[in-house]
Amino acid sequence: MANTIDTAFVEQFEADVHLAYQRQGSRLRNTVRTKNNVSNKTTFQKVAKGAASQKSRGGDVTPMNLAHTNVSVTLEDWYASEYIDDLDELRINIDERMVAASSGAWALGRKTDSLITTAMDATTSTIAHGSAGLNKAKVTEAFETMGNNDVPEDNQRFWVVGYQQWTDLLDLEEFASLDYIGESGPWHSGVTAKNWLTYNFFAFSGLDLASTTRKTFAYHQSSMGHAIGADVELDVTWQGQKQAHLFVNKMQMNAVLIDAEGIIEVSCTES
Fold first, then answer.
1. What's the fold here for domain 7-45+67-119+228-254?
2. pTM value?
3. Distance between the two ends of the chain, CA-based, in angstroms?
């Protein structure tokens, strides 16, 4: 019958959505700390900075007594649903099935990125737009601030920018020339990215634009957390009134700011 669907197809489609989400659903997820298989609520630990010390012969070792701060986050349910009329086409055509699966994965990916950038916006460390785009002065100011905060230079510093800011950067010889560019690592597969002045810069279309001001974020991977519950779950039901199957992709997730010293909001003017 037209309104029946076998379990094997549902499981395959669910796996396709999950795979598409992992590969290309989110731009930001691989640049932040991630916890999987979380049940309702979890904590990310911010570890304070310590210093080594000496000990006298026969004396005790002096503990650093680091102040560990826990930041908690509660998961939320998010859904990406779609009516599909011609289920038989998806059963026999792998390409069509992957197109349908990718639409759900991309919707969940965009929500992932939105949760992360919303959490980023909670930082109190900012660089004003100054009626200018993303220029060398702003980049060096962020570099100095993170250096003074002892943020590690370990190829885990990122800078997410809008496409106009990417164009601004290309006007800088130091950014455009390969003589100044470092290795950005494998995280950026399928992403426009460059490494310059300790930051992995990459372009992203989902940053907030208020009037002519775009917020960009320079951050270390350890400063942001993204928590995920179960993998992508799929529920398929027949909707008689619509004469179609309703595909509902579900994820439990949320994001949180862990360390405000490791992230800077840099505002840029767009023309």
1. Major capsid protein gp5 fold (3.30.2400)
2. 0.85
3. 57
